[in-house]
Each structure stands twice: as C-alpha cells, then as structure tokens.
Write a structure and sequence with these properties.
The structure is a homodimer of 348-residue chains. Chain A has a 7-stranded mixed sheet with strand order 9-11-8-12-10-13-14, with helices on both faces. In chain A, strands 3, 4, 5, 6 and 7 form a 5-stranded mixed sheet that branches. Chain A folds into 2 domains: 146 residues, 60s Ribosomal Protein L30, Chain: A (2-Layer Sandwich); 169 residues, PurM-like C-terminal domain (Phosphoribosyl-aminoimidazole Synthetase, Chain A, domain 2, Alpha-Beta Complex), CATH 3.90.650. The first copy, chain A, is built from 10 helices and 14 strands. In chain A, strand 4, helix 3 and strand 5 form a beta-alpha-beta unit. The radius of gyration of chain A is 21 Å and the shape is globular. The mean pLDDT of chain A is 92. The longest helix of chain A is centred in the middle third of the chain and has 18 residues. In chain A, helix 4 crosses helix 5. Chain A is an alpha+beta fold and 348 residues long. Chains A and B meet through helix 1, strand 2, strand 3, helix 2 and strand 4 of A and helix 1, strand 2, strand 3, strand 4 and strand 7 of B. Strand 3 of chain A pairs antiparallel with strand 2 of chain B.
C-alpha cells in the first residue's frame, strides 16, 4: 500500500557511511541550549546543568515491531521517536535529545531513508528534542531502528514506578485500545489486498484508530499539564504493553495492590464499534492491546480536586494493600485478578 | 571453532522479554554514585552534577561487524562495550554508564546470551561503568547489538576533533595494525577449518594480534595518564577505521593540514612479521586497517616535554596549514597525500 511517488532510486552503496549520515541529518536543527555538540564528533556533549538526567532506549525491528506493507516510512520514523519520548515523559521529565541508529539492508534506496528521517525530523521539531548522534550501518535483512532518548527533571519531580501508596488514585490519560484496533483494521486490509490487489479499502470510518496505530503521540502535554496543576504523580509508567501489564508493574514495584473499575476504562466510540465489528471484547483490548502510549499514574487523594473534570485524565481505580492483589471490578460487580498479557516478541 | 562446553540449551521463548532481561542482568552491580536508577523503570536516572555529559552510540551487526564462527560470544560482548567506551575516552572524558540493547533470533539459546552478557559484565567491571538500561527483542536473523555509552568531563578538558592548530604535534597511543592482521589470521584459519575440520590451528605465534582483534582494550588509561601529566589534547579521535581516515577527520574538522612520518608509525614486531607472511605492506595496514581502538590526538608543542619518552605515546607527525593538505612523508623522504580508506559497510 506504499505508493512509490518518486521513481528516483539511489543505492546506499553509492554513499559511504559518513556521507549517508551527513545527507540524512543535514536539515536537522539544534534547538536546545543544553546541546553543546551534536552529530560529528566521537560523542555528543550535553550541558544538563544541575538537573537529573533521564535516559531510555528502544529497538524496533522490521517484521517484529512493524510491517512496512502498511506502515509508511515517514510514520515509522515518527512513531519510533514517540515510543522513546513516551518513556521519558513517563518519568515526569522533559525530553531534550535523541540519538538514532539504523541498520538497513541494501534493498532500501536512499529515498526510503529520507522518508524515514523526514518522520524523525517532524517528531524532533514537534517535541522540541535535538538529534545529537547515532550510527548507520548495513544489515543482512530488513530495517532496524535503535533510539535513545535523553531528558531532564528536577529531583523531586521524577515519577518512578515504585512510589504508589495504598489509597492513591489510579489515573490514565486519553483513551485505550485504539492502537490495537487500528492494527486489526490494517491487518484485515492487508489480507484483502493480497487476495485482490485492485480493492480500494475505505478506511475513513477507522481514521481515529488507524492514526492511533500509525501516528501515536507521546504525552508531552500531560507532563506540562501536571506541572501546571501542581500535581506530582506518586508513580508513573507509559502504556506500551496494555493497561493490565502496566498496572502489574506499578503494583509489583510499589508493593501495593489495585482495584481497577472496568466501567471507568476510557474507550473511544470508534474503538467500541470496531470491537463489535471484530467481535472482540473492548475491555480485553484495553487491558492487553498495547501501543497506546498513554500515561498511567497514581496520585495522592488530596490531589483529586486538582485533576477532577480534566478531559485528558480519567480516574480508573485506586491502589490497595499489596496483600489484596491487583484486581478488576467488573461491570457486574465481581472482582477478577489481573494477569500480565505483556507482549513476548520471542513467541512465534 | 566455538566449543559447546555446556550442552544445556534453553529456548528464548520460554522466558518473556521481562524475564530475559532480568535474568541476564541480575549479577550486574551499580558502582557509580552518579547512577540513581538503573534497569527497571521507564528510564534510567543519572545525577551527573555540574559536569558536561558525553554520549555516544554504536550498532554492531552479525555478518557485517562480526563473525561468530571465530568470535566467541563473551569476547563479542566485551568488544562491543570497548568500541563504545573508546568514543567516550576520545573526548577525554570518563565513561560512567552504558545501555545495551540486543535483537536476537530464536536460533540463540539463553546460554549463548549469558556468554554475551558475561563479556559485557567483565567490561563494565574492568572499566567501572554501570549498565543502566537497554532493550531485548527478537530479530528475523542473527544478532544485533546497540550500545550507548555515557560519560562526564569538565568543560575545559573535553577534546573535540576540531581544536588542532598548525604546528601541534600528532600523537598516537600503543601500536597500530594488530587488529587487522589478527583478523587476517582468523579468516585464514576459518578457511582451513572449512576444508579440513580436523585441523588444529597453531595460533600461538599470533597471540598478540589475535587478541587485538578479539579483545581490544579501550584506552581509559590514557585519559588518566593525560590528566596526571597535565596535558589536555587540542583535538582527539579514536582509531576505529584506520589512521589515515582519522587523520583526515581531524584535519577537516580542525581546518588544518598534517605531515605524518611513515617511519614513526608504531608497529608491533608481530604485526610486521604477519605482514611479511601475508605479503601486505605494514604501513598500509596501519593506515587503513582499523579496529585498533587506540587514541589519536594533537598537543601544543609546549607540552612535548611532558609526554616525551612515555612508552604509551608516539609522536608521529605535526599539523600544518590547511592549504598544505594531509600528507605522509615516506621512508624515502617523498610526500604522498593521505586518502580515506574508511570502511563502507554498504559495499558488498
């Protein structure tokens, strides 16, 4: 489904590694005062002053984490940055720099990498982070992207996974399950396309969920909102593997239990209708779907008034004593234990 | 040539991603006071105080950068860390933390990854750096390692590539060409082994150069030595692609020329005899061989007395006006222009 808009193809071996990285990064501007030296030396140099440094890294592998048959390269570049920035925001920190390394087979022409870097550039501009380094090399097969994100935070504002206390409220941003249902729609269209390459899919009714899958937005705005509301989460994590798995991480690392209320889980109407169409339970999708890149955090009850009524934030439960375990209170009022459905990339 | 000492094999899919990374990193200790939080949250948290942060990243791909038929996994883990630390030392900085991400196919059992991490652990202990994060995922084929190294330096001590001035002395550490000649020996033995699997190679005469290839040591000691000698290099780079390519980087980024003296290039006797055996010119090997991970730097002439006679340091030339270009003065006294033989991983 990727259109070849530009028939021009330049083989990567025509450029050396140095030329390639120079070419791909020539339009990137440095905008953060903390970046003293970006690309072009043995290492980048940063001046992060007396703030704490926050650092996270992720690998994205073709055929495991993304499928180029429906993921345009520009979107992939953008999403790869989002996945990493989301980890920085999940510490309640401000993202400031990234490094991007790629391993790529010769089947990709230069123009394909330009598309990828256009998406990366858009992300760096929109989220005000500087690209400060990376590595570009060849691979035997496919494309692999490794990104490291760096951020800063004041010591007393950092939200670890381990700070939740019993009676803290459990809060989630945005809505859940969209990215997973978007993937279902894209997979279905891919299967249809294989059978009939002339089929013209009408993705219009699915715009929201397809965008959630192809162009997720890391919640930088939430970190800013919480600062403005003068709320410091007692614990925070981003939702990459699904709500259930993330709640279990918070419970384990904070040594608390949790009561999650099924009827409070925020779902977009598009997600609900897609779940009906695909005959999947929407709660299951929210619990185990993953890739929403929303933030999940806990706050002290005294902060409830500060967040009450904010359309970006939904209280979905509260933390309990560790001995009570992590549970979901269903719509019918029964309690069931939450189980990890975290994604295992080694399973076939 | 890798012996299977332990017939026990555990499939990676038996563990999830979380279990795998927990298992592989359980023996790693945090030893730097600047590491506030290592593995286990959305991001690591560092307290680098008022020092400048130095950061570098590298990708190593099976079949491109390493060949597991003669590179034991433990050595590979060690070398992957060295490659990155070398970039930090090339800034005249102290390395403090690393992240390690791997993409690995299911053909590797858990025990293979344990070997890899044993090498990584040995490197972190020997060089006093903390493993603070990473990502572990599956790949379609082979093994890929992405490492990011973090270090700290005082502002006035950082050695960029761009600070060399005409008349500065050009200094190299250790000796050159060993890693390349070690690779030639290993490639030859691999070819022999393919023809006759019962052949017992005698690598004893080649111990030094094979070790240079399989177990390079990043020059942390040089950064410490320079501090002790009270010498701050005006420019510095590490030798990963060969002396010629690195000199050209220094010349280009400092806007200077260079006269390199062929007869000053430090060569180990083992390298010279291996070059004779393989009928390769030893100067060419030093200029273009690569992977020595020695440091190449420039100093002001007034600092010459401080480094004079140090067995770790060899003055191999001096910088000139940019208009004169980068040249080598041969043993016969003629001048030839240096050309980049930098390695292009995209060429087949």
């Amino acid at each position: 489904m990727i259109e070849d808009k530009d028939p021009k193809k330049t083989a990567l071996q025509e450029l050396g590694e140095f030329q390639l990285i120079k070419h791909l990064t020539k339009d990137f501007a440095i905008t953060n005062a903390s970046t003293l030296k970006g690309i072009g030396d043995d290492a980048a140099v940063l001046d992060l002053k007396d703030k704490k440094t926050v650092l996270s890294t992720d690998l994205l592998v073709e055929g495991i984490h993304f499928d180029l048959s429906y993921m345009p390269l520009k979107h992939l570049g953008y999403k790869a940055v989002m996945v990493n920035l989301s980890d920085i925001y999940a510490m309640n920190a401000v993202a400031t720099q990234i490094t991007v390394s790629i391993a790529v087979s010769n089947r990709f022409p230069l123009e394909a990498l330009e598309e990828l870097y256009a998406g990366i550039e858009l992300a760096t501009k929109s989220f005000n982070v500087d690209l400060i380094g990376g590595d570009t090399t060849s691979s035997k097969t496919g494309l692999l992207i490794s990104i490291t994100a760096i951020g800063v935070a004041n010591d007393n504002e950092i939200a670890y996974r381990s700070g939740a206390k019993p009676h803290d409220l459990l809060v989630v941003t945005g809505d859940l399950g969209g990215a997973y249902m978007g993937l279902q729609v894209l997979e279905r269209e891919k299967a249809v396309f294989k059978v009939n390459p002339n089929s013209q899919p009408d993705l219009e009714p699915y715009t929201y969920i397809v965008e959630r899958q192809l162009k997720p937005e890391a919640r930088k705005d939430i970190v800013e909102l919480l600062k403005q509301l003068e709320v410091t989460p007692t614990a925070m994590i981003d939702i990459s593997d699904g709500l259930s798995s993330e709640i279990l991480h918070l419970c384990e690392q904070s040594n608390v239990g949790c009561d999650l209320y099924e009827d409070k889980i925020p779902l977009d109407p598009t997600v609900i209708s897609a779940c009906e169409e695909f005959s999947i339970d929407s709660t299951l999708v929210a619990l185990s779907g993953g890739e929403d890149y929303e933030l999940l955090f806990t706050i002290d009850q005294k902060d409830f008034d500060k967040i009450k009524g904010n359309p970006n934030l939904t209280v979905i439960g509260h933390m309990t004593d560790a001995s009570l375990g992590a549970n979901m209170v269903t719509r019918s009022g029964s309690k069931i234990g939450l189980t990890a459905q975290g994604w295992n990339s080694f399973k076939e």
